[in-house]
Specification:
The structure is a homodimer of 273-residue chains. With 273 residues, chain A is α/β, with parallel strands linked by helices. Chain A is built from twelve helices and five strands. Chain A has a five-stranded parallel sheet with strand order 2-3-1-4-5, with helices on both faces. In chain A, helix 2 crosses helix 11. Chains A and B meet through helix 3, strand 2, helix 8 and helix 12 of A and helix 3, strand 2, helix 8 and helix 12 of B. Chains A, B: InterPro entries: P-loop_NTPase, PPK2-rel_1, PPK2-related. Chains A, B: GO terms for molecular function: phosphotransferase activity, phosphate group as acceptor. Chains A, B: This is Polyphosphate:nucleotide phosphotransferase, PPK2 family. Chains A, B: Keywords: Transferase.
Chain lengths: 273, 273
């Protein structure tokens, strides 16, 4: 799956990606798509167990995508198969005043996954070259310098044992319209709706430019980008599940095997008689 | 369930609690016990949704119990039905050197649930009147003062909108033996075994005294204790699930209902022409 979805090096033109495609899907029916969740749970539990014996490896799933792209859905349906032990979710909102007083990575560092943890970023440090760039929230020289800063930051993470899995959830302009209309149709989903979302939608092409720059300039060997076609929700969940599964298989975590003197311990525990 | 498991005011004698009891269980078969997880998920999602609209309420499940009592099992099987969005798990280990340089509540405060979050403490600030007391890790005057400090701390949490649900997972000496032996029988569970666990087990009666003092002296109206009979794993999970369910029903969270001008928003989204 990683080979199929990895962004090739060089310039990125999102129009060249088909958000309704289904690369590697083994069946034509979206509802048939299923990850091997038992195996994934097993691997995640082992990664966590390793950390209790001194292991320091971790995984960080970074999800970016326009509103309604499905970052929450992936969290619920894919990440929800894990944990909760050893899983840490963070949804990054507009930074607080306190956060704005610090470097843009300050609040990110506070939420990095510890040893053995699968961390999930629903939005991330990339907002600082996305919404910030689209709305000119800082001078160009400042956001321009962030691409290199992000690459260095992620290199530091990788060098410290974190596998960084970056997914861009790609949906079409029409798909977003349909999903926003669906939110309006359901009063129980009105809380997810914000009129400002439509103002963001009006800047679709500005966001495309910012996404393209992100996908091109932070597509490193140590932390490559994957573009996940996300018009089909089931496909999107399955594809990101497969990416996570492959990532965990590569780490190949194992149950720690402490050197226990089992007969002696059993003797200490045996019932008196 | 809260009425059935709540610790009565006054002196606590754990020998008077039956760890194999099944209060309120609607059937005689443990495997038939099931929470209404769909409803619980709905309530948890609404609590989280409320926080996105300014709500500040949260829930903190505190679990204490001797090794193998099932704090991890409850997290996996009960808390695992929620989230991961809006759920935060923390397993407290022996404090680090940095943590020891601060007040005992310092590391606890850093992991308190934010608005809308269901926080889970697998061990907690109560370790500072349990293992610390049993092993004389600080002078008696110091741990003695902590009961009042904890009551004040929890009052502060409750006043700030956190419902504190404190569960003591009660198992018998024999149940712990059986579970430790089971860990020895399964090489995949050896990582959970620590020879020091047997030294702790040898201090069972010291722990009973410390548990009794905890249950008596921090059993406040704002944050009462529940003793959950935990010899039967299915019963334990069900009972804590019911406690959580009742807690969430009492909060009665609702989907936020922002005042949206739906026709106008729909018009902005409608396809051209």
């Amino acid at each position: 799956m990683r080979d199929a979805l990895r962004v090739p090096a060089g310039p990125v033109v999102l129009a060249g990606f088909d958000s309704s495609a289904r690369p590697l899907a083994p069946t034509k029916r979206n509802r048939d798509l299923a990850n091997d969740t038992a195996r994934m749970r097993d691997l995640q539990a082992k990664l966590w167990a390793e950390s209790t014996a001194g292991g320091t490896r971790s995984v960080l799933l970074v999800m970016q995508g326009i509103d309604t792209a499905g970052k929450g859905g992936v969290t619920k349906h894919v990440v929800g198969t894990f944990g909760p032990i050893g899983v840490q979710y963070t949804g990054f909102k507009a930074p607080t005043k306190q956060e704005l007083r610090h470097d843009f990575l300050w609040r990110i560092r506070k939420r990095l996954p510890g040893p053995g943890v699968v961390g999930v970023f629903d939005r991330s440090h990339y907002e600082d070259v996305l919404i910030v760039r689209v709305h000119d929230l800082v001078p160009e020289a400042e956001w321009e310098a962030r691409y290199d800063a992000i690459n260095e930051f992620e290199k530091e993470l990788v060098d410290n044992g974190t596998t960084v899995l970056k997914c861009f959830l790609d949906i079409s302009f029409e798909t977003q319209r349909d999903r926003l209309l669906a939110r309006l149709d359901d009063p129980e989903k009105h809380w997810k709706f914000n009129e400002a979302d439509l103002d963001e939608r009006a800047r679709w092409s500005d966001y495309e430019v910012a996404f393209e720059a992100m996908l091109e300039r932070t597509n490193t060997d140590h932390a490559p980008w994957y573009v996940v076609p996300s018009d089909h929700k089931k496909y999107r969940n399955w594809a990101i599940g497969e990416l996570l599964h492959e990532t965990l298989e590569d780490l190949a975590p194992e149950w720690p095997r402490p050197a226990l003197d089992v007969p002696a311990l059993r003797a200490r525990l045996a019932p008196p008689h």
